[in-house]
Amino acid sequence: GRFRHHQCSSVEMESHRQFVRHSERVKSVDLHPSEPWLLVGLMNGEVNVWNYQTEALVKNFKVCESPVRAAVFVARKGWVITGSDDKHVRVYDYNSGECLRQFEAHNDFVRSIAVHPTKPIILTAGDDKLIKQWNWENEWALEQTYEGHGHYVMQVVLNPKDGDSFASASMDNTIKLWHIGSATAVGTLVGHEKGVNCVDFCHGSDKSYLVSGADDHLVKIWDYKTKKCVHTLEGHTMNVTSVRFHPSLPLVISAAECMGDLSGTVRVWNAESNRLESVLNDELERAWCTRVVGDTVAVGYDKGCVVHRITNKQVQKSSGASDKKAE
């Protein structure tokens, strides 16, 4: 692929493009934890599961007539769960393709779904400014509503180091920190000057970090214990739509609504030196969503989706805002 690399003290990364699929605009991507499967939620109301190794279409669901902004695997149940602009959450058996459950979850677009790693619960976030907690072992009962944001809640993400805490990103320019079961936020991170689209927790190191991206074109790294911004990563020239920490390498992957190659639609940053490591130019127009599992990175764009592998070269050597409604 066409990648620019910047060497850094801590990691010498290498990228390989594994899979490219042209499609309608992609609003959501997820990666299966054990199968080589990419889950894609589309603007046209469809969801596809691709095998990114064989390039075969594993499953296709027509969810609804409106955009599917959230689609996630629940591997331990054999499910795909979707959230869409028709305000509904739907649960599918990904082997049979059967819709097992559907319910109206919010009073507006459903933006984001987070699946608890051990408990039988999901969190959903919507344009009604709410986050809701649902329990599938209790007939999908609404267990808790989390209130406090003043605008659309764009993303909700659970802390991988602490299953009882999560964070949310909102168009009210803030990130809020929450505890499962406690209706009001335990903290608010203030520093972005425009709406915040995305947030993710650091998995690997002992640092209590999270990363956010916003319509001010900035990526910010925060210490969620002190609630202070520790670094601001500048370089994107458009709204930042998705941010992820790499689970094992000290990298942050950020995506933005950039059309041209030079601005770097997807950027890979070193989370320790805060330098730009690499720019991934897939030439599929604006990037909307990313997901990282292991060394596999999925990106969804206006014109399709791509799966990259991002690995550490050192290890290999030794071992072998815009109008949110319209988009």
Automatic annotation (TrEMBL):
Q: Does the keyword Transcription apply?
A: no
Membrane-protein topology: Peripheral membrane protein
Give GO terms for biological process: endoplasmic reticulum to Golgi vesicle-mediated transport; intra-Golgi vesicle-mediated transport; intracellular protein transport; retrograde vesicle-mediated transport, Golgi to endoplasmic reticulum
Q: Which domain of life is it from?
A: Eukaryota
Q: Which InterPro entries match?
A: Coatomer_complex_subunit (IPR050844), WD40/YVTN_repeat-like_dom_sf (IPR015943), WD40_PAC1 (IPR020472), WD40_repeat_dom_sf (IPR036322), WD40_rpt (IPR001680)
Function recorded in the entry: The coatomer is a cytosolic protein complex that binds to dilysine motifs and reversibly associates with Golgi non-clathrin-coated vesicles, which further mediate biosynthetic protein transport from the ER, via the Golgi up to the trans Golgi network. Coatomer complex is required for budding from Golgi membranes, and is essential for the retrograde Golgi-to-ER transport of dilysine-tagged proteins.
Q: What is this protein called?
A: Beta'-coat protein
Source organism: Pristionchus mayeri
